[in-house]
Amino acid sequence: MKKLLEQPIKTELDENIVQNIYHETILHLSKEPHNYGVLGNATHDHTELNMLCGDEVRVMMRFTEDSTMCEEISFIGFGCAVMKASASIMTDALKGCTPDEIRQLAESFTNFLHNKPHSISQDAQLRAFEGVKQFPARIKCVLLPWKAVTEALAKAKG
To answer: Per-residue pLDDT tens for 60-112?
Structure first.
């Protein structure tokens, strides 16, 4: 998890443009998302739907045999640019994380988007979603893959 909190935003834009909801990073990752596709032998799998806008995302994870670490994670789905970019950044971030680290990061990112105390560092890629805070309806789009991940963990817990 530490790798995500310290990972810089990969852009050459100044901080004023970071406020734009369709930031360069978001647009790029929505067109060329990382970890997109069906994951065979997933140990955790959940689909979430945003009834307001029609976004849908399925997140699949494969954990180590002892269930202590996420070895692989992928997603499929359709929807807006911010949802796809969020899923892409999320899947990059969660590889190698424990279930508790995944839950902690999901909670911190949710808090970040709702202007509550969080642990997202100033240069984290997740900061690309700063501009979304101005559009409450879009926050649900950004959080959709994160909800799918936490629900997948909850289902596996039983």
So the answer is: 999 999 999 999 999 999 999 999 999 999 999 999 999 999 999 999 999 99
Q: Which domain holds residue 66?
A: 2-9+22-157
Q: How far apart are CA 54 and CA 67, in angstroms?
A: 32
- Per-chain mean pLDDT for the chain: 86
For residue 116, being part of any structural domain is answered with yes
C-alpha to C-alpha distance for 127 and 123, rounded to whole angstroms? 7
- For residue 15, is it within any domain? no
For residue 27, the domain's CATH number is 3.90.1010.10
Domain assignment present for 16: no
Supply the pLDDT for residue 1. Answer: 52
